[in-house]
Amino acid sequence: xxxxxxxxxxxxxxxxxxxxxxxxxxxxxxxxxxxxxxxxxxxxxxxxxxxxxxxxxxxxxxxxxxxxxxxxxxxxxxxxxxxxxxxxxxxxxxxxxxxxxxxxxxxxxxxxxxxxxxxxxxxxxxxxxxxxxxxxxxxxxxxxxxxxxxxxxxxxxxxxxxxxxxxxxxxxxxxxxxxxxxxxxxxxxxxxxxxxxxxxxxxxxxxxxxxxxxxxxxxxxxxxxxxxxxxxxxxxxxxxxxxxxxxxxxxxxxxxxxxxxxxxxxxxxxxxxxxxxxxxxxxxxxxxxxxxxxxxxxxxxxxxxxxxxxxxxxxxxxxxxxxxxxxxxxxxxxxxxxxxxxxxxxxxxxx
Amino acid sequence: xxxxxxxxxxxxxxxxxxxxxxxxxxxxxxxxxxxxxxxxxxxxxxxxxxxxxxxxxxxxxxxxxxxxxxxxxxxxxxxxxxxxxxxxxxxxxxxxxxxxxxxxxxxxxxxxxxxxxxxxxxxxxxxxxxxxxxxxxxxxxxxxxxxxxxxxxxxxxxxxxxxxxxxxxxxxxxxxxxxxxxxxxxxxxxxxxxxxxxxxxxxxxxxxxxxxxxxxxxxxxxxxxxxxxxxxxxxxxxxxxxxxxxxxxxxxxxxxxxxxxxxxxxxxxxxxxxxxxxxxxxxxxxxxxxxxxxxxxxxxxxxxxxxxxxxxxxxxxxxxxxxxxxxxxxxxxxxxxxxxxxxxxxxxxxx
Amino acid sequence: xxxxxxxxxxxxxxxxxxxxxxxxxxxxxxxxxxxxxxxxxxxxxxxxxxxxxxxxxxxxxxxxxxxxxxxxxxxxxxxxxxxxxxxxxxxxxxxxxxxxxxxxxxxxxxxxxxxxxxxxxxxxxxxxxxxxxxxxxxxxxxxxxxxxxxxxxxxxxxxxxxxxxxxxxxxxxxxxxxxxxxxxxxxxxxxxxxxxxxxxxxxxxxxxxxxxxxxxxxxxxxxxxxxxxxxxxxxxxxxxxxxxxxxxxxxxxxxxxxxxxxxxxxxxxxxxxxxxxxxxxxxxxxxxxxxxxxxxxxxxxxxxxxxxxxxxxxxxxxxxxxxxxxxxxxxxxxxxxxxxxx
Amino acid sequence: xxxxxxxxxxxxxxxxxxxxxxxxxxxxxxxxxxxxxxxxxxxxxxxxxxxxxxxxxxxxxxxxxxxxxxxxxxxxxxxxxxxxxxxxxxxxxxxxxxxxxxxxxxxxxxxxxxxxxxxxxxxxxxxxxxxxxxxxxxxxxxxxxxxxxxxxxxxxxxxxxxxxxxxxxxxxxxxxxxxxxxxxxxxxxxxxxxxxxxxxxxxxxxxxxxxxxxxxxxxxxxxxxxxxxxxxxxxxxxxxxxxxxxxxxxxxxxxxxxxxxxxxxxxxxxxxxxxxxxxxxxxxxxxxxxxxxxxxxxxxxxxxxxxxxxxxxxxxxxxxxxxxxxxxxxxxxxxxxxxxxx
Lengths: 351, 351, 342, 342
Ligand SMILES: Cc1ncc(C[n+]2csc(CCOP(=O)(O)OP(=O)(O)O)c2C)c(N)n1
Ligand SMILES: Cc1ncc(C[n+]2csc(CCOP(=O)(O)OP(=O)(O)O)c2C)c(N)n1
Ligand SMILES: [Mg+2]
Ligand SMILES: [Mg+2]
Description:
Bound molecules: thiamine diphosphate, magnesium ion
Mean pLDDT of chain C: 97
Strand order of the largest sheet of chain C: 3-2-4-5-7-6-12
CATH topology of the largest domain in chain C: Rossmann fold
Number of helices of chain C: 12
CATH topology of the largest domain in chain A: Rossmann fold
Distance between the termini of chain C: 24 Å
CATH architecture of the largest domain in chain C: 3-Layer(aba) Sandwich
Structural class of chain A: alpha/beta
Helix content of chain C: 25-40%
CATH class of the largest domain in chain A: Alpha Beta
Oligomer: heterotetramer
CATH architecture of the largest domain in chain A: 3-Layer(aba) Sandwich
Helix content of chain A: 25-40%
Number of domains of chain A: 2
Number of strands of chain A: 9
Largest sheet of chain C: 7 strands, mixed
Largest interface: A-D, 67 and 82 residues
């Protein structure tokens, strides 16, 4: 049984993430009406929203500390929220503002919050190797922090993921790989891209434990992740976890979803993991009032983050030239060396 | 029980390949004495010899036709021989001669013989996707040819291999993946690079049958490959096969093998798959005399191929500029189009 | 410019994506061996409309969705091409090249040479390029220079519907590997409005445009602007504005980077003496470098002034003011032309 | 050239590989966070001696053999670097970049920028480059241009033991990602004899050579030869021969491609008026292009003649006569210099 306080935190994460996506959707579509023009409106670029994925992020991140690393894919907001990323600065980043996490340079697929060791990226499975590297660093430093790499079920055939399973396994690293299975990779259903219905089965080929949470249920994820993260933290190596989630919106904003059967969309809408968790809260004796309050607080937090973000200044065009490197181009020195070398002048030396 | 005539063919392949490598070793080292200089001597470049790998190639290729495709890795000669690649032109290629398979442009890691659909390449696991493509072509054309990709056990963690397992599996393609496990990836023992002692175990993660032949035994390989190739040819999809072989020489010529325990080298020398097959020939009633004759004929063939190759002319330096493309640079036309387009001149058109 | 010898001016206009798809469909009808592989190319019709409508006619066997595993399926295209088929493989965004580059440049591009031409690789690699819609550092690059630098691939960059169709016919029929880089902003996708220019009249019939034949999209006497892709249209716009100031710019659309039509560039510079190269790829070690170097090497005498305009060696930033700063705009082209006098 | 202000000329000579390894060992002693990952870097000591002897001192935990999975371990280096460690990851041959390029250029090179510098990636990617020993199209390239074109990585190419050590110290201490490309032929490996030149006196103490500082390896008045890596030594040899004919060539060793020391090149060309660029990478869209373009753009007036010498846009062939034909030789450099007069 998951503690009531944990249930509350998870519920808060989930409603925060859900409402966040709904609000971003609104903001994003503003200015893109009546004709959808990707270059118009207050939020630049593509936008991949995660409504329906919340259970996975919160169930896993409950077990994580700030010094644990998380890498997320192109659909990152729910994970960022569960990991405790600064919501204001994240939102400002999504709106492309100067005070955003990346000063407006990264955008919604490139959110970095080193305070809580969160990063995401836009290439399929690309976050897996760096997560393995974070695990490697922890092991080398003899620290008990862990790393978690989230990917979608469409990513389970990408080399970066499969190679990472092996590297984590052979080096016995504290890494948990979490597959969020929302049944779709853009327009491609899972059975079109792999023969394996349960992709945690890939783990066996690397002598790694694999497990699938077959229902979109935050507490079930919580339990499975507890074991996986615990295993990693105790130095017993990596785990592969697959979690059933569902996709309530298009792949990205503007996706007509014409490839998607209506029953599938309807089914996704019906199996709502937030309502499921709310019932568990009630079963744990938490009053409806309190649940409503959690929800309202979450909504307020989201609204105020969006409010704050929209108030932030646009970056100065000149800023585009900075931040390619953190140090000087010349490295740690600008001084020419002055050694006198014996023999032939062509033999090295300096000018 | 494998037919006697098959046993003889296999024995011939094996002694041909073994003697070929021994002779190339001699030739290669010529001119590299006393100090080993990779740029000296009659054979250019690196040389990866496959002495000890023969059982795998012959056991598999017995089941193949000329229209079946084989891709091999950097250690290709035994496979090329078993697949029926033109021995003279292959040898000329290895010696960098004009009449070589690739006119001296490819070398020992880049042997192509389209007559028997053989190719090899120098990047780990790089031949797997093209083999899948050959299988795809066969399926599309409704032909019953198959494709076999050979790799080393060091390649089982490379994305190109793992992704190929999935693509072949989800598309149900007639492909057999063969892992030649010689215990070493250059200086790295298998357990340093993966936790899985039997890499055919990787197959399970893709719902593909996997099998390991745990002894360096040509007829055992023959039997396992019969099933795998048969499955592919009958349209029942891919198989992953791992085959124990052994490495009798260094990774490449010039490898000091200082990383390798002496017992391991000695053990490799002792478990000789050729002698094992010879006993089977004897058990099948084939006389020692006949066995000796097979061996001598094979040696003669190798000697004469090397003789021939060394007589071939060096390529003309000017030839370096050709063969980047087979067709003209301009594509199928050199003629400018002459359409008159309505409206604004900037709207396309030509000059 | 269009010659005057055909009977009647063609006025059926197509978007660049329709023109490209028309060529693909024609080739697929003519030759059973042509097929298309990629992510979301079947039911979705290509994220950037590159296969719109093809599934309906050709079915899932020839318009194939594949697992997200670029190494595997691009390499499979190489294998199928070597078996004599004529695959078209799509890399959804060129920015993803890093997950499949080994198959692209060590197999697709080199197998012909490494085999002494006993093998050839008749395939097309299509890929979407370009920014201007704030998709940030991993989804907005053009990477023209990266592909053009490595030998063994022909590199095609159409700027109009007319060119897109003729170049695609040539690409599919070519017995050698062709990388066909289409700019998202030019495709005429509903949700990403194209500028004026790429939508052009397109003949219904098949035709091929040769590779290595740059197209003078606007004639001019004072300065040569060499460019490609989206920036052809920005350069033409700049030229029209400059004309009002009495500066007559010639706009050369490269159309292919490999082979490169040096002759047309040299002819133009011989006439104008001034060279501006405009590119949406990174500035250093890229397209602008090569064009300037060829002219400097082959006709230094006629070169009076030169200027390069490209992305200033920074990754593509996300926010609009930042992205606008780094991708050359029409105004920047005008400034570059003015900066080298006239 | 070496200045005259130190007490006594240094005469301890090292091969380039020993110098490189010495710097790595020093840094590993000084900082626990430095470690080395690669294939065959532990017991083998690096196929090209890049880690020779390090295992004995530092053990398998810090000199780590890794599975043949470049994407995974190079990406892991990125992750460890972002966690504050200072990994050195080795890509055995640069020709293998295609199997790991996404992690290299979309993570290692871009994460700093994409994070607005809230994250940085203090790692070194070492890799062996170059031909001259007939290893054919997949093991002989230099690919300088491919790496230098993409922003976010510093690109270092040492040509001598002295430079190799100072540049390696700077690379490891740098808080930004550095690609350190060492030419096999220069390393002084037993089985691949180096030419005269790379083995130089090397101080025992630590020192850093700044990036973006080209080194005039030979002064001259008549022509500027800009080059790097192996070809520094071929250019010096050519210059010595040319001197006998009264042509006085200056040889500029770039040492780093990113940042590029344009100033030293411009100064030299201002003096000589003639520019020859020599490169072992492919000719088009590469290093030679960039050097010529920078000079043309920034000081066209002083440029009287220019010539480029590089691999002529073909994959590297195997047989000796063919490889010799495509890789610029000392004779070719002399011819190029003569071809543009003096
Ligand atoms: C290497 C690579 N290939 C293709 C893409 C384009 N792409 C972005 S998201 C996506 C589908 C991902 O599906 P999945 O992993 O299931 O995640 P989901 O979007 O369903 O959350 C694809 C193909 C990419 N970003 N990177
Ligand atoms: C992608 C890539 N990484 C590294 C190498 C260098 N390399 C060549 S052979 C080899 C070891 C291969 O071992 P294995 O696959 O077991 O084959 P074996 O040599 O034992 O036959 C390595 C690392 C390469 N060619 N390609
Ligand atoms: Mg999905
Ligand atoms: Mg092996």
